[in-house]
Design brief:
By secondary structure, the chain is an alpha+beta fold. Helices cover 31% and strands 26% of the residues. The strands form six sheets. Strands 10, 11, 12, 13, 14 and 15 form a six-stranded antiparallel β-sheet that branches. Helix 8 runs antiparallel to helix 9, helix 9 packs antiparallel against helix 11 and helix 18 runs antiparallel to helix 19.
């Protein structure tokens, strides 16, 4: 066949196929993508006409000489060319080749195979493969070779690990394959076994797998100690035999990390450890000596020189830093029997340490935000003495969520009344907690105005809109909306006034066990659609129970409405026990109030109808003085009589009948209330020295703890609180 014709395929000096023609694909049954890059011996091993090809040199390519392979025509002598092919493959291929006869005796090996084994050729040739390689962990077992010889099915790409005599201190990885060779009639002539040293490739892939595992496993929690533990778990024993993770004392306290010092080290404490660390394994929390990680601490991963007491242990140290701030340091050690750390291990340690430091920064930021949120949340202590005459209250907070801005308050109001407030900002996070604090402050301020609950929510809605305008200008902060339930209980009349913004848990249980799960309709969210808000007025007997939560019962509880009814359907139980049962139905971050209503005893009240006549004021003063003596209160009777006189005089002069005077004896104060049918508000004036009147309310404001006005549907009530005089 003329040499000018294109060859069937082209191989390089190492015997690897470079180009594969369509004729070769049809002749051998291999497409080009399956042949290019493979050793020619592997491709030819399955053909029955090895002697029908010839090889000739081509012009050299960019990577060295190239050889072409042609089919031989009739009368051409191919014997010498066959030998040329074999010589090229056996002398220039980078693949280790072993030719075995049908009895699996070694017929021929190339120089690469000898170099891989480190065994002289004369000690291999002619010997059974198991005997020739027995001391050196044979790559392919005898049963596998016999299966290839009998069936003709190749055995490809099996990874084998071992320590060859030429490099006994390092484990090598070989990719081994076996192919049957046969004559033109298909009679087996033996087996060709190949071996390629893929140690570098497998090492790179192992490092990538470990780095991927580190990214998957480290940082799953937002806790600095757990993050350190995750670093230890992912690197032992895959990367090192023992690991020591140390964090700075500032990071463990939740403070800002320090800058990496040029000299010396910040105070370090052991955060996590595994394995037997050379020099002693410290306990978690113990202070570590600075020199344990090098002096000074390296700014990037580095190998420390072995210690005289432990010369066989290599130590790799990597600082845990982010933008020049040091969070800690990690030290890896391998035992003397393991392979020492290499340059590629430094790069891997750098990647793991950088990811861990980022996770520590996130955990530290979460810890600090959690501290801030906890401080802002500031669950109030129960106003026991101020509210116990009106309500028996149980409070709960179910933690474990994302830090939603939930709050509750029990606020004492004038006239022995008590306000119950439960709310939650919709968007979670520290901004929600800050919004919650502002709304909570606004609620406390608005309660001093004695507004009806729905009017209070309307003004709170305006406050929420103002906050939304301010926060909407801050990048990454959503405009807030909130839900809120506001309840006012009057223990004198048993009246309950309720207003509701958004959906939340609200239920009323009467003493006979009947339950009203929706005493008032769901209203719009604060900061969303706005007023009017749903409201209701109820009169409940003493011993009724109010259940308020910042969120509905958890949907995953299966039957939230039925389970809630079961938890509340036992009015004989205390509010604390009922709160325990209801709390389990709530989602994380929800807050709960369970309040048992009480009526103020008649012995704590005094009430008179006062005619709209100025002469009735003196008679009212005498009635008040007599009642004060019966109660034996520690308030100044002169102050009480003066306040009663001024309030009644204003009601008679500027109000309208009917007029009612009421005294309420509290734990530490006396409340005086005057109710009339006029809706005109009294006005505090600062009278001139020459004025004959206009000083009544000014006198009341000066002598009392506080005073104010509240309105109902058809009347108004002016009240004043007079504190006890401890000198009496």
């Amino acid at each position: 066949m003329p040499r000018s014709q294109a060859p069937l395929f082209v191989m390089d000096g190492r015997g690897l196929v470079l180009r594969w023609s369509a004729s070769a694909a049809g002749l051998f049954g291999y497409p080009a993508q399956d042949a290019v890059g493979r050793p020619a011996m592997e491709v030819l091993s399955g053909t029955s006409s090895l002697g029908s090809w010839r090889v000739g040199p081509l012009s050299s390519g960019s990577d060295g000489p190239e050889w072409g392979v042609w089919t031989t025509g009739p009368g051409e002598d191919s014997g010498g060319l066959d030998e040329a092919v074999l010589d090229a493959v056996f002398t220039q291929s980078s693949v280790g080749l072993h030719v075995l006869d049908p009895d699996l005796r070694v017929l021929r090996v190339n120089s690469v195979a000898v170099g891989m084994r480190g065994v002289p050729e004369e000690r291999i040739l002619g010997r059974p493969v198991t005997e020739a390689y027995a001391p050196y962990s044979p790559d392919i077992t005898e049963s596998t070779l016999r299966d290839v010889l009998a069936t003709g099915r190749p055995h490809r790409g099996v990874l084998v690990r071992g320590r060859p005599p030429t490099d006994p201190h390092r484990q090598h990885v070989f990719s081994t394959s076996a192919y049957r060779i046969q004559d033109r009639s298909g009679r087996p002539l033996g087996v060709v076994a190949t071996a390629v040293d893929v140690t570098e490739r497998e090492g790179a892939q192992a490092r990538l797998r470990l780095l991927h595992a580190a990214h998957e496993s480290i940082g799953r929690s937002l806790d600095v100690l757990r993050t350190a533990r995750e670093l230890v778990d992912v690197t032992v024993p895959t990367f090192a035999g023992s690991v020591l993770v140390a964090l700075t004392d500032a990071v463990l306290r939740g403070e800002d990390p320090e800058l990496l010092p040029k000299e010396g080290l910040p105070l370090l404490r052991c955060a996590a450890t595994a394995g037997q660390y050379a020099g002693g394994t410290p306990k978690v929390g113990s202070v570590l000596l600075p020199g344990l990680f090098g002096d000074p601490l390296p700014e990037e991963p580095a190998l420390l020189p072995p210690e005289p007491a432990h010369p066989d242990h290599g130590t790799l140290v990597a600082p845990l830093t982010v933008r020049g701030q040091i969070f800690g340091v990690v030290a890896f050690q391998r035992p003397s029997a393991a392979e020492p750390f290499e340059y590629d291990d430094l790069a891997l340690a750098d990647g793991i340490a950088a990811h861990t430091a980022t996770c520590l920064e996130n955990a530290l930021r979460f810890t600090r935000e959690h501290i801030v949120m906890t401080a802002l949340q500031g669950w109030p202590l129960r106003q026991a003495k101020a509210t116990q005459s009106a309500l028996e209250v149980a409070q709960r907070h179910r933690p474990g969520g994302t830090g939603a801005g939930s709050w509750f308050d029990v606020i004492p109001l004038p006239g022995a009344r008590v306000a119950l407030v439960v709310g939650q900002v919709e968007q979670p996070g520290i901004s929600a907690v800050a919004t919650m604090s502002q709304l909570r402050t606004a609620v406390h301020s608005l309660t001093t105005l004695d507004l009806d609950p729905h009017e209070l929510l309307a003004r709170l809605h305006t406050t929420t809109l103002r906050l939304a305008q301010e926060q909407g200008k801050v990048p990454g902060v959503e405009e807030p909306t909130a839900r809120c339930t506001f309840v006012v209980h009057d223990p004198v009349t048993g009246r309950i006034d309720i207003a509701r913004a958004g959906s939340s848990l609200l239920g009323v249980v009467r003493p006979d066990g009947t339950i009203d799960p929706a005493p008032v309709a769901v209203g719009p969210l604060l900061g969303a659609d706005g007023p009017p808000f749903a409201c209701a007025e109820l009169t409940l007997p003493a011993g009724s129970t109010l259940c308020l939560a910042s969120d509905d019962a958890a949907p995953e509880s299966g039957r939230p409405t039925e389970l809630l009814a079961e938890a509340l359907a036992h009015p004989e139980r205390s509010p604390e026990r009922m709160a325990d049962d209801v709390e389990r139905l709530l989602p994380p971050d929800a807050v709960l109030l369970v309040a048992r209503t009480r009526r103020l005893p008649e012995s704590e009240l005094a009430q008179w109808d006062v005619p709209a006549d100025a002469s009735a004021v003196g008679r009212a003063r005498r009635d008040v003085d007599r009642r004060l003596k019966e109660w034996r209160t520690r308030v100044d009777p002169f102050v009480v009589e003066l306040v009663v006189s001024e309030l009644l005089t204003n009601a008679i002069r500027y109000g309208s009948a009917p007029i009612t005077l009421r005294l309420i004896r509290g734990e530490h104060a006396l409340t005086c209330e005057v109710t009339d049918s006029a809706l005109t508000a009294p006005n505090l004036r600062h009278a001139k020295a020459s004025d004959e009147g206009g000083r009544g309310l000014h006198i009341c404001a000066s002598l009392t703890e506080s005073w104010g006005v509240r309105y109902s549907a058809g009347d108004k009530t002016v009240w004043a609180e007079i504190a006890e005089d401890t000198t009496l």
